[in-house]
Amino acid sequence: MMKALNKRHEVHFLGLGTPEADVAQGAEHCRTATFVPHHVPEKGTLRFAWSALGNLFSTLPLSLALYKSSELSTAIGQLHESIQPHLVVCDFLTPAPSMPPEMMAQSVLFAHNVEALIWERLAANASSKVKSIYLGSQHQRMLKWEGELSARFGRVITVSEADSVLARQSYGLTNVAGHVPTGVDAESFASLRQAEMKPGHFCFLGSMDWLANIDAVQWFLREVWGDLYARHPDWHFKVIGRKPPQSLLAEFDGKHGIQFTGTVEDVRPHLSGCAAAVVPLRIGGGTRLKILELMAAGIPVIASTIGAEGLQLQDTVHYRQTDNAAEFAAAREDIHANPDEARAMAQRSHDDVVAANTWDHVADVFLDLALNVSLQGQGHGNVATRPPVSAMN
Question: How many CB atoms within 10 Å of residue 234?
């Protein structure tokens, strides 16, 4: 969406990290990119465990506390003073604690998830009582802070109608302007639609440093793939996504037809020819960009209800909805046995869902919500559109 906005507006990016970070690179994304150095301990390390333990004495949930930065707050104020932007966007809830308080009422929060819902699902699916208690505590803190922080912004934009409804109902927010559809660069995946499907080749696509994806892949490989591989020892399963945890690699990589790619420069060669993709999420929020990318590539999708959440998809028409190990296994077998039906389903998903969701369209909807929507009951009239200069942090 930044690329689409930057085609016709002046976008300036500000965030935590280093210039080597894999976001906001190059002129196609933004006019300037400023990175504030900030170190977050890697998951699975002793330092991360110490931070998690120390968070018991903080009022902020861990996922906000780890990224709170006074240096970022100062940099936001300095950039704002320097370029005088017409629109300031806080991308995700994570930077919100670092936003200068005096700027929040004139800024937009782009909420990619209802974060508290993720923590609630994490607690519900915890593998032990101790984890459940800790994650439940994180959920309660996120409920408090997500509501309070969101209410401070002039407008909140979500990524699905369901998230907009939940934000209004759970937090009583009256500043929710609406939602933008999930976008996809369909043209970049178009060539894959002509690739010949390889029977027995399946995949998962998603960043493997996100808890929801780690949980999904671990559950699928433990509960579903083992039995499938025992019946079909020539089948292959590829996990395409950056930074898989060492625990998953040690347990599964290179065994029973399983391959983890880790970070790749381009996902398309790894997707080419896949007979089907699975999205077995049990936790998470927002919408699934990766499902649209898979559908743009012409790959049949098997997903849990949560995996397909937020997208206007119909079971058996656009994808196969499955919510337990037996259903996932049966869907895999069915797609393998009926490739023509699987291709027809993939074609319908492309025609009905993918074609309309271009990033240019999404960017137009976002700007309309950010600048031109009157929020009743908030004292916000229509905001006049001026020469657009956008600052995103």
Answer: 9
Question: Which of the four pLDDT bands, split at 50, 70 and 90, describes residue 242?
Answer: very high
Amino acid in position 17: G
CA–CA separation, 157 vs 166, rounded Å?
12
DSSP state letters, 183-230: P--HHHHGGGGGSPPEEEEEEEES-TTSHHHHHHHHHHIIIIIHHHHH
DSSP state of 31: S
Which domains are present in the chain?
2-182+358-392 (3.40.50), 186-354 (3.40.50.2000)
Look at residue 377 and tell me whether its pLDDT is greater than 80: no
Q: Cβ neighbours of residue 173 under 8 Å, at least 6 residues apart?
A: 147, 150, 151, 156, 167
pTM of the model: 0.75
Q: How far apart are CA 271 and CA 203, in angstroms?
A: 7
Rounded Cα distance between 290 and 192, Å, is 15
Query: What are residue 301's phi and psi, to 5 degrees?
Result: -115, 135
- Per 3-state DSSP, what percentage of the chain is helix, strand, and coil (rounded to 5)? 45, 15, 40
* Residue 259, H or E segment: strand 258-262
Q: Are 88 and 138 in contact (CB under 8 A)?
A: no
